[in-house]
Design brief:
The protein is α/β, with parallel strands linked by helices and about 350 residues long. The chain is built from twelve helices and 14 strands. The strands form two sheets. A ten-stranded mixed β-sheet has the order 1-8-2-3-7-4-6-5-9-10, with helices on both faces. It has a four-stranded parallel β-sheet with strand order 11-14-12-13, sandwiched between helices. The structure holds threonylcarbamoyladenylate (TXA) and magnesium ion.
């Protein structure tokens, strides 16, 4: 295949994926090729996790720094245990309750996992995704699949196959296209090698839900954790998951900020909960995206909204205030990161991957 023809797009049914199409993608994984596939969180870029060359090619396709380890996907808890040097009780409890699902467990790795996957670290992040296409691919390939989000290191995670193409056209071999990701936010990542476990990345499963299953509160990473070198979890650095346009978080619905920017001559994207019916009309240079007031639905739409506004393009994105309760924690976290100023302290790992 020439770069112009890559990737080969395979449309599949999201609920009952066609076995012959899954077989093509699975064969490609086994042959060391790169396959983007849907999960319930975001689309992933898959490579055979046991094939060092394939994983290197995946890092190259994403421009991902080799210092940022990737998540390994498995078909079930048994598959995860095979890759773990030990399986703490916390891992058993969390896997029983939340797998398949949007939770990634960091455990000590066995030698089967090449160092390139874990950025040289002794732990590996494991997840069993809750998506029929991802699970069918994992079963058919019969190898664990290393898969970060299927975006280039400078872009937002993809929640549709079209987003993958914008970012990775010409760089990957296959794309399983199966409609929008249901959750739209990356998995929660929890380190269970320590007691109590440490929640490294907020995600669709809340700290409260984790505490309910573990019987103890999870710890949040300390400032020192993020200052460790080599970085323990580089993808958690401050500016991450960011659109090209500058993002401003407003107090209130954001209308005042939008009006000020418009009068300054800027093209503005406005993400806000609810509709503006009954309010004064806005000029056509403002692109409004109305969001649901339910955290799960808002999370599912957020990255697609950012992708849309980046494609317009707009100069600045204003995001109206959202609730601060636990259901909204992961969304608040991603918006904080998307709005963080680019850092100039030369942290090579501070990339959006
Ligand atoms: O929902 C998701 O998790 C998606 C889908 C495709 O599964 N994947 C995803 O992968 O978001 P990625 O690579 O974009 O983010 C993985 C995060 C990064 O922040 C990385 O630093 C962290 O997990 N990570 C990976 N391995 C780790 C490890 N051994 N210890 C600590 N953090 C790790
Ligand atoms: Mg990512």
């Amino acid at each position: 295949m020439s770069d112009a023809e890559r990737p080969h797009i395979l449309p599949v049914d999201p609920v009952r994926p066609e076995p012959e199409r899954i077989a093509i993608a699975a064969q490609a994984i086994r042959a060391g090729q790169l396959v983007a596939f849907p999960t319930e969180t975001v689309y992933g870029l898959g490579a055979n996790a046991l094939d060092e060359e394939a994983v290197r090619a995946m890092f190259a396709a994403k421009d991902r720094p080799p210092t940022n380890p990737v998540i390994v996907h498995v078909a079930d808890e048994g598959g995860a245990r095979e890759l773990a040097a030990d399986w703490p009780e916390a891992a058993s409890k969390l896997a029983a309750r939340f797998w398949p699902g949007p939770l990634t467990l960091v455990v000590n790795k066995t030698r089967a996992i090449p160092d390139v996957v874990t950025a040289g670290g002794s732990t590996v992040a494991l997840r069993c995704p809750n998506h029929p296409v991802a699970l069918a691919l994992l079963r058919a390939a019969a190898v664990p699949i290393a898969a970060p989000s299927a975006n280039r290191a400078t872009m937002i995670s993809p929640t549709t196959a079209a987003h993958v193409l914008v970012s990775l056209r010409g760089r990957i071999d296959f794309l399983l296209s199966a409609g929008p990701a249901e959750r739209g936010l990356e998995s929660a990542v929890i380190d269970v090698t320590v007691d109590p476990p440490v929640l490294l990345r907020l995600g669709p499963i809340s700290p409260g839900a984790l505490r309910g299953t573990l019987g103890v509160a999870v710890a949040l990473p300390t400032k020192q954790f993020f200052e460790q070198r080599p970085a323990r979890s580089p993808g958690m650095s401050r500016r991450h998951y960011a659109p090209q346009a500058i993002l401003l978080r407003a107090t209130g619905d954001g209308r005042r900020d939008v009006e000020r920017l418009v009068s300054g001559g800027f093209r503005v994207g406005w993400i806000r909960i609810g509709s503006s019916s009954g309010q004064a009309a806005l000029p056509p240079t403002v692109h409004v995206i109305e969001m649901p007031d339910d955290a799960t639905l808002y999370g599912a739409k957020l990255y697609a909204a950012l992708h849309t506004l980046d494609a317009m393009p707009v100069d600045q994105i204003v995001v109206g205030e959202i609730p601060s309760d636990e259901d909204w924690l992961a969304i608040n976290d991603r918006l904080d990161r998307a709005g963080a100023a680019p850092q100039n302290d030369d942290r090579s790992d501070d990339r959006r991957t």
